[in-house]
Specification:
The protein is mainly beta. Helices cover 0% and strands 49% of the residues. It contains no helices and 11 strands. Strands 2, 4, 5, 6, 9, 10 and 11 form a 7-stranded mixed β-sheet that branches. Strands 1-3-8-7 form a 4-stranded antiparallel β-sheet, with no helix packed on it.
């Protein structure tokens, strides 16, 4: 059974960078679509980015040009490079896995979730 673990969150100043990691504590990520989602207090969970099994990617409009998702199957990990962060990026970030392709990021397409990592953007 695949189990996901996120790391790399923390406090960062506006305009700064963070790199989140999603690794598998058991199982392998190779055969899954991996998505990053985030949830801010009082808001619904929203999709941030997804990488397919072949490496193709999609992004939410709010992070295009600032965030980059990548996967390293040899390391059994997926990364989210966050640049030029903004206070609006503050949230708990989750990685999730799905065996099913979908044209857009929808949290209900994903059935395996990590525990989340907090990202706070503040001066």
């Amino acid at each position: 059974q695949l189990q996901l673990v996120e790391s790399g969150g923390g406090l960062v100043q506006p305009g700064g960078s963070l790199r989140l990691s999603c690794s598998a504590s058991s199982g392998t990520l190779d055969n899954y679509y991996i998505g990053w989602f985030r949830q801010a207090p009082g808001k619904e969970r929203e999709g941030v980015s997804r990488v397919s099994r072949s490496g193709s990617t999609i992004y939410a409009d709010s992070v295009k040009g600032r965030f980059t998702i990548s996967r390293d199957n040899a390391r059994n990990a997926v990364f989210l490079q966050m640049n030029s962060v903004e206070p609006e990026d503050t949230a708990v970030y989750y990685c999730a896995a799905s065996r099913t392709w979908a044209p857009v990021l929808r949290h209900y397409d994903y059935d395996i979730w990590g525990q989340g990592t907090q990202v706070t953007v503040s001066s």
